[in-house]
Design a protein that fits this description.
By secondary structure, this protein is of the alpha/beta class. Among the domains are: 75 residues, Roll (Ubiquitin-like (UB roll)), CATH 3.10.20; 159 residues, FAD/NAD(P)-binding domain, CATH 3.50.50.60; 146 residues, 3-Layer(bba) Sandwich (FAD/NAD(P)-binding domain); 81 residues, 2-Layer Sandwich (Alpha-Beta Plaits), CATH 3.30.70.20. Helix content is 28%, strand content 18%. It is built from 21 helices and 25 strands. The strands form 7 sheets. A 5-stranded mixed β-sheet has the order 2-1-5-3-4, with helices on both faces. It has a 5-stranded parallel β-sheet with strand order 8-7-6-9-20, with helices on both faces. A 5-stranded parallel β-sheet has the order 11-18-12-13-14. Strand 3 and strand 4 form a beta hairpin.
């Protein structure tokens, strides 16, 4: 056949007479989105994604079904084309019942592939699990011990009985990897000759340094403390996070080539300007190291200390003299760390003062329970009214008794004072654990928010200074959990890499399909209770800083991991539908209406069909009929109610499926799953 020439998006493309626009585009390395086309099958033209605009042709054409004409000028990405594809994708996704990612993954601020690594743990592949975790979290043994695991809140196993113990499984796999002869380290890309300074060696700084080093950049971390780790090192007690575990993980980051300089404070030992002059980019990840005061009369007395300050002192190896009676103000995890540390420092009576009830306390319930076991007394619905003292030293704390009123902006019922009702406690020390603030001396050149944090772009993490980025507790909304800082650090690393290599720094938030489910959807599942982590006896642990938890046994961890429902799509990485759905912003909810019946069946024996994910592209039907010659699948019904179903009698007809699987290989959405 004679050659023809057409112009596609400004490029001259050569094809054969009789070829379609889609075929010529593919032969010349130009992708036109399509879901129902395969070169070995007859043209079907169902999905509507391959539409293109051809000059001098008034309507949009389907590239898969349009034979190219010599001299045609084709545009694949005009406003009309994008709008047509957008509507087609929104219609498809509005009827698509599938989870792209497991809710555990979406619940993790860092989007760690919890489903992926839990599966590897179930299979006994701890190293592979750590490889998956370290794509987002380079400190898994540490974070697995201290993270309040929002992933577990999202875990659908909770609709059966109890969520998976995801965080402890992370720590289990990471501990095994650290104990191996060759702990996992990622391959480092070729050197880029670009230099990045990271200010702050906490979870955010360490994460960004790890990711940037893997990308091939030369990274140096500057930290004001004697050792790296930030709040993981100096804010989390030893009994929750043994420092040798953290040190081992920090060493693995250093082994990637990351230079680490301790006892260096910006504004004293170096300046932000000198770092900008020496490095191609600077990331500020200094955290929030100041405690918020109690906020009542007497909080300047001797014996009133910040929770962060007290924990840092203990983590530096000093045992402060707290006296016999200690009051800790606050209801979060820092308050739990402070009260339990006070017990270990020798205090006989430790009180937690919190203005709401236990149900409203932000601390993990397990932390509260373990504090109670260790003898801490909780004074719920009380708030400091005044701290009293003699000769400048704390002697008592006067508490206003509270009750819950109407919900506040956070949705929690607002605590209000009970008029005239007070309680007084004799105390030697009052520890404020109600919040943290940033110490930003040396960073005056950076724009700050009204909260006294650094202002950084929410998407790129850029500050007001060229080449200076900022993440973590010191930015925008202020202090949060470590995994939030890690999530920001991952985003910053990508933005810095793009900045250094001249790419676009802004990445759109990805769209994912999510199922709506209830406990009824899992009524057939066997109830398998969550594995219980054993821990040391309270009478033993309150007298030392040894690790409280004993860790999972091998048998416990494998069994716990096998409880995973594997909610996320098995075919996500190869799914054409979700890839195209992220080419531009879409809003399927605006077109949402009646949906096809959703169910799974295994009549094909070695292939599971998920009707909820099917988009009626008909590739499976046509492949089985046209290419394989079996015709085991067919379209059933009319109009909107049309579905694809197996069409055969008896089991002999599917014997060829065992070694074929061509329908599953071609499925663009993960509706067909090969069963092992």
């Amino acid at each position: 056949m004679a050659d023809i020439k057409i112009i596609i998006d400004g490029r001259e493309c050569i094809g054969k007479a009789g070829d379609t626009i889609l075929t010529i585009a593919a032969q010349n390395g130009i992708e036109i989105p399509n879901l129902c086309y395969n070169k070995n099958l007859k043209v079907y033209g169902a999905c509507g994604l391959c539409v293109v605009e051809v000059e001098n042709v008034p309507k949009l054409l389907r590239a898969c079904a349009t034979v190219a004409q010599d001299g045609q000028v084709v545009h694949t990405d005009t406003q009309r084309v994008r709008q047509a594809r957008k509507i087609a994708l929104e219609l498809l996704m509005s009827d698509h019942e599938g989870d792209c990612k497991g809710p555990c993954v979406l619940g993790c601020p860092a989007n760690t592939d919890a489903q992926g690594y839990v599966k590897q743990i179930a299979l006994g592949n701890d190293r592979e699990a750590v490889k998956i975790i370290k794509e987002k979290v380079p400190l898994p043994a540490s974070i697995g011990r201290v993270c309040p695991h929002p992933c577990e809140t999202n875990c659908r196993r909770g609709l059966v009985e109890q969520p998976l113990s995801i965080a402890y499984l992370k720590a289990f796999a990471a501990d095994n990897d650290l104990a191996s002869a060759d702990p996992y380290k990622p391959a480092v890309q070729a050197a880029t000759d670009k230099k990045v300074a990271v200010i702050g060696g906490g979870p955010a700084g360490l994460t960004a340094a790890y990711q940037l080093a893997v990308m091939g950049h030369a990274v140096t971390i500057y930290d004001m403390m004697p050792e790296m780790g930030g709040m993981l090192r100096y804010g989390i007690p030893e009994y929750r996070l043994p420092k040798k575990v953290l040190a081992s993980e920090v060493k693995l980051i250093a082994d990637l080539g990351v230079a680490m300089k301790n006892n260096v404070k910006v504004g004293t030992d170096v300046t932000l300007e000198s770092l900008r002059a020496e490095y191609d980019a600077v990331l500020v990840a200094v955290g929030a190291w100041k405690s918020t005061g109690v906020g009542c009369t007497g909080d300047d007395l001797q014996g009133v200390v910040g929770g962060i300050d007290m924990l840092r002192e203990v983590n530096e190896g000093k045992i402060p003299s707290l006296g016999k009676n200690v009051a800790v103000v606050g209801g979060g995890n820092v308050a739990m760390d402070a009260c339990r540390t006070s017990v270990r420092c020798g205090a006989e009576n430790v009180y937690v003062i919190y203005r709401r009830t236990r149900a409203e306390a932000p601390a993990e319930d397990l932390e509260i329970e373990e504090a109670l076991e260790e003898g801490v007394e909780f004074k719920w619905l009380t708030n400091p009214a005044e701290i009293l003292g003699e000769n400048g030293k704390v002697t008592q704390i006067k508490l206003q008794v509270m009750e819950l009123g109407e919900p506040d902006a956070s949705g929690r019922r607002k605590p209000v004072p009970v008029e005239g009702k007070f309680e007084t406690l004799a105390v030697d020390t009052v520890i404020s654990a109600i919040g943290q603030r940033c110490a930003l001396e040396g960073f005056e050149a950076l724009t700050q928010t009204k909260k006294g944090t650094l202002e950084a772009d929410e998407n790129t993490c850029l500050t007001n200074l060229e080449g200076v980025f900022a993440v973590g507790d010191a930015t925008n909304r202020g202090p949060s959990i470590a995994v939030n800082a890690i999530a920001e650090a991952n985003a910053a690393a990508k933005a810095i890499d793009a900045y250094l290599t001249g790419k676009c720094m802004v990445a759109a938030k990805p769209y994912y399909s999510e199922r709506k489910v209830t406990s009824e959807d899992f009524a057939d599942r066997e109830k398998l209770p969550r594995a219980e982590m054993s821990c040391k006896d309270p009478k033993v642990r309150r007298g030392n800083f040894d690790a409280v938890i004993n860790g999972f046994t091998e048998e416990q961890a494998r069994a716990e991991a096998k409880r995973c429902l594997e909610c996320g799509c098995h075919d996500f990485d190869d799914c054409k539908l979700i890839r195209y759905a992220n080419f531009q912003p879409i809003d399927p909810a605006r077109l949402e209406g009646s949906k096809h019946e959703c169910y799974k069946e295994q009549r094909l024996v070695t292939i599971e069909r998920d009707q909820g994910k099917c988009i009626l592209c008909n590739l499976c039907v046509r492949t089985c009929r046209e290419e394989v010659g079996k015709g085991l699948l067919g379209l059933v019904g009319r109009g909107f109610k049309t579905v694809i179903k197996p069409e055969f009698e008896g089991s002999d007809a599917v014997s060829a499926c065992k070694d074929c699987h061509k329908c599953a290989d071609l499925c663009p959405t993960g509706a067909l799953k090969i069963l092992k």
